[in-house]
Design a protein that fits this description.
Helix content is 13%, strand content 32%. It is mainly beta. The strands form 2 sheets. The chain has a 7-stranded antiparallel sheet with strand order 1-2-11-10-5-4-3, with no helix packed on it.
Length: 143
Amino acid sequence: MERKTFIKTCCYGAASIPLAGLLPGCGSIHYASFSQQGSVLIVPLSAFKRENKADRPFVMLADMGLPFPICLYQIDESPGYVASLMKCTHRDCELEVGGGIYSCPCHGSEFTTAGEVIEGPATKALITYLVEVKHPSIHVHVS
C-alpha cells in the first residue's frame, strides 16, 4: 500500500469513530427461522413481526447451504417481498443492508432492495429468487 493511500485510509477510519455511536448495531438485523423443503425455504410471516414495535422491513436467512445469506425484504409491489443473495456481483463480497439499500463494504457498490445496481463498480444486478406468499408463510425458491 502506498503511503498516501495508507494515511488517507487511517484518516477516514479515525473520522468515522464518532459516527459509530449514531448507527444501529448488528442487533437490528434479525435472522429468521425457516424450514426447507427441497429448494424451497419456508419463512413464517410472523418473522417480520415485533412485539409493541413496527414490523421489520427485512429478515435474513442463513445456513441453508448457500455461501451467502439471503435478505428477504418487504416491498409494496406484489408479491410483497423480494429475496436477494447478499453477494456483490463485482467481487463476491458479502453485502450489508441498511437505509433501504444493500451496500458492498469492499468496493462501494450499492444496490436497490430489488437487486438493481445503484452505483458501481458492480454492473450486474444481484441474484434474486422467486417469492410466493402462501399464508401463513413466504416461500423462497432458491433453485
